Amino acid sequence: MKVLVLDGVAREGLQKLENEPGIVLDITKTVPEDQLIAIISEYDAVIVRSATKINKKVMSYAHKLKVIGRAGVGVDNIDLDEATRQGILVVNAPGGNTISATEYTIAMMLALARNIPQANTKLKNGEWDKKAFMGTELCTKTLGIIGLGRIGSAIAKRAQAMEMQVVAYDPYIAEKSVISTDIELVDLDELLERSDFITIHTPKTKSTRHLLNTEAFSKMKDGVRIINCARGGIVDETALYDALRSGKAAGAALDVFEEEPLTNSPLFELNNVVVSPHIGASTREAQIKVAADVANEILATLKGKLVKNTVNVPVIKHDLIPELKPYLKLVERMGTFQSQMVTARVKKIQIRYSGDFFKQTDTLTAALVKGFLDPILQENVNYINAIVLAKERGIVIEQTSVSMEEGYSNLITVRVFEDGCESSVSGSLFQGKPRIVGVNGYRIDSVPEGHLLIIPHVDKPGMIGLVGTVLGENNINISGMQNSRKEAGATSMMVISVDLAVPDEVLAQIKQAEAILDVKMINF
Length: 524
Ligand SMILES: NC(=O)c1ccc[n+]([C@@H]2O[C@H](COP(=O)([O-])OP(=O)(O)OC[C@H]3O[C@@H](n4cnc5c(N)ncnc54)[C@H](O)[C@@H]3O)[C@@H](O)[C@H]2O)c1
Ligand SMILES: O=C(O)CC[C@@H](O)C(=O)O
What we know:
524 residues, Rossmann fold, CATH 3.30.1330.90, 22 strands, binds nicotinamide-adenine-dinucleotide, binds (2R)-2-hydroxypentanedioic acid, D-isomer_2_OHA_DH_cat_dom, D-isomer_DH_CS, oxidoreductase, EC 1.1.1.95, amino-acid biosynthesis
């Protein structure tokens, strides 16, 4: 397996990956896109910081790529939709640089309040100018934090230690009680109206792009100071420039920009703007932590283990992995079972989870759909792209969860709706091992391994013997057999485990027998 490491990711953090037998690490600086395209096809994994763009074009050359690792939080340099479409896992290292980015933001706020960079430059240019640098205290001032996640809440703690009043806007935090009681959660307009300093700590998304635009600036206090150490483009740079020129804003500190790298901007001409080249996470500690975190994720992915910090598939909590693993196997097998039962165009797959599935039903559904599509598609289907591929084929995926039922502590039932018909399979675990416990409403108990024959037939004497004889004559050994009926004399369901795949002509021989309604062979 080959891993390409770009953008100067800290080597000290990569030791685990480097020492892993069977993994070759190529570590290099940021390379231009044409060079990346020329080499990317060799690699199973790539690790980047924020400089390299892993876009659709790069991915179209990345034939072996299984995982993209981001040594940091923001993944806006990676085309997530395309990665998902191609079944490439994207992982990141979200916590490793929180403290560094937090401390840097506080440093920027102080630099802004006290004109430290400007005073430094003037004195080094030979001017002792005490009068030019009248600053402002932070104590008692109101800090507005937009985005109260890892960094936003760490900023709040530090700002409170400096006796600032903290207000915050984060529409995804519902309860005041989940955060520090001293942080006042307000709506955006109130934050804009009340804050002396505004700092942004959201990702860049459709809803945060140009969140601070001309209209937002018009609602702010005169003399407001803006800090953006999150992502360029959350502040509209033109609107900011106008606010600084008009005196509406007294200053801005920016670590991030709409276009990066950036060496020339009207903002750089303004004396009350402090800038830096996206270095909020640039400390040795943070870089070693994010490199080590992402290396662990890459290693887990390449070794086929479950991964914690996934960006484009639902996250599985590490401590749930042992519990979840047998269910993942079960649902994948159930999906494979169902795709081989299909006789007409599939319209909908409906999954019903009864019992406690650790709130991981999205992951289980992805595994089930993977199992369903895998036998019928040429392209690589995995947990990442399975749902997207199903939707592209017009298949509706529905899932519901209910509490325990039917005597099973955990039961999963999949119904597949086809043009004019439907079929179902139920599964559960027995002593930690997957079992098929129902087919089209018939109770059975079969191990989903090897080959299963599914034979609905009229409930009358001699049917089991008939099928057993045909299989025996063709030297096919039966390793398990179940027969189930709903009522006497109606239809029964025979489920037979066989040691070998049954040839088509033998299936046809069984099928033509009187009272046999159908024969399907399911291969796992
Ligand atoms: N300058 C740097 O070098 C540097 C370093 C680390 C992180 N970052 C950036 O800092 C930002 C925050 O990182 P984090 O680790 O705290 O992320 P996080 O995911 O922990 O927190 C983000 C918060 O933003 C909130 N949010 C999302 N959309 C919002 C909206 N429309 N309005 C208000 N709040 C919204 C979320 O609810 C969440 O609480 C990210 O953009 C990250 O890329 C920059
Ligand atoms: O890696 C970097 O240099 C930037 C990191 C930061 O922007 C992040 O989102 O984690």
